[in-house]
Structures are given as C-alpha cells and as structure tokens.
Specification:
Oligomer: single chain
Order of helices and strands: HHHHHH
Largest sheet: none
C-alpha cells in the first residue's frame, strides 16, 4: 500500500498526541473517557513502534491487537483506536502534506512556544 513504515508514522503520531493531551487537560468537563481513549491509542502506537509491522500487513497487525486486548480493556475501544490509527496511516500514505506536517512535529495553532497548549475560544464553545 505504501512505502511509509507504520512504525515511523506511529512514532510521529506519538509526538502529536502530546498536543491532544494538553488540550484535553485544559477542558473543564470530565475528560476521563478522552484519557482512556488516548491511553489505548498510545499503547497501540508504542506497540507498533516496537513491533515495526510491515506496511502490507499493518491492518492485520492492528486487528490482532484488537483481538488480543487485555480483559480490563474494551475490545470495542481498542478497535476504535485501531481504526483511527489505520486511517491516519492511510492518510499519511496518500497525502504527503499530512506526512510532512507530522514530520515537522504536527505544529498547531493551539501550541504555545513553551510546548504547552492553548485552548482557543472556538474549542471552548465546542467542548461545553
């Protein structure tokens, strides 16, 4: 499907998760479900970096992770995050601009110079 190695992309997605976590931490609502989802996604990404699956078998590799989910984790939640990772990998494979953006550290208007994240008024309106 692609010359993009899943492990390389997942390494960059792990870095991009930092901005998401900063944004989540600033929300006034209960973000426990967000934290659980991000934790599952982080575990999938870390495992992909460690296992370095072949691009031709990445989807099957993700399915295996879903089927091998720990008893204390919902298979549906793991599947949801696996579908998200697969979609991002496909996007990076098809759209060089997305891959370049990730390679640059996934810069965001929400990020502040100190590496922290600033929640915009539009984000506040969407989350409340």
């Amino acid at each position: 499907m692609s010359d993009v190695r899943p492990a390389d992309l997942c390494r960059e997605l792990l870095l991009a998760l930092q901005a998401s976590e900063g944004r989540r931490a600033r929300r006034k609502r209960d973000t426990t479900p967000d934290a659980i989802g991000l934790g599952i996604k982080r575990a999938l990404l870390e495992r992909a970096v460690a296992d370095d699956p072949d691009p031709s078998t990445f989807e099957a590799w993700l399915l295996e992770r879903c089927l091998a989910a720990d008893d204390d984790v919902s298979v549906g939640a793991v599947r949801m995050m696996a579908v998200d990772v697969l979609a991002e990998w496909r996007l990076a494979s098809a759209l060089p601009e997305f891959r370049d953006w990730l390679h640059r550290g996934a810069p965001s208007d929400d990020a502040r110079p100190d590496g922290d994240v600033d929640v915009k008024d539009s984000d506040r309106a969407n989350r409340d």
